[in-house]
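Please go through the sequence line and token line underneath and see whether the fold suits the sequence. See right below:
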Amino acid sequence: MSTEGVNTSRRRFLIAATSAVGGAGVVFTAIPFVASMQPSAKAQAAGAPVEVDISKLEPGQMMTVEWRGQPVWVVRRTPDNLADLKKIPADQLRDVNSEVISQQPPYAKNETRAIKPEYLVMVGICTHLGCSPTYTKIGEGGLGADWKGGFFCPCHGSRFDMAGRVYTGVPAPTNMVIPPHKYLSDSRVLVGVDPEGAKA
């Protein structure tokens, strides 16, 4: 076969251009395929665990993270907060012993409703109509001299103590929810997963 009269530079240009267009087509085809392997925002919102660094949380402070589209509070309680939980008369709390089992995992069915008494991990939603209460310390919010600190819902006046237990005489029917969680270390907590060996 004779190559006389063939323009080799033009041939090289056409081969390079065709290869470039073909390569771009492969990339644009691969992008949606690779993206389809990533979990969707809906799947992530459905309950992927959230790791929280609590190393900088000072006593008396609260931080908020999002899990399953809900605010989850981590509160570092002070020794006074823990002592005050024992001073609230039992008849002032609707579910003082956390008997409504759907409101906390079994390992948080205790006086502090926590794995580690110092830290409260709780869904920050009022159990009445889903408003978000405010963290109200002793002497704040005009809640009276006997207020030991806790959470006040401004929507309809429900009050919760520093363990998220609901007071009597308010619209909220149950204690605030404690989500499944476990400690990875002294400074990290994983929200959305029960500790190994815990009964769910």
Summary: The CA atoms of residues 112 and 163 lie 5 Å apart. Residues 8-35 form the longest helix (28 residues). Residues 1-38 form one domain. The chain has a mean pLDDT of 85.
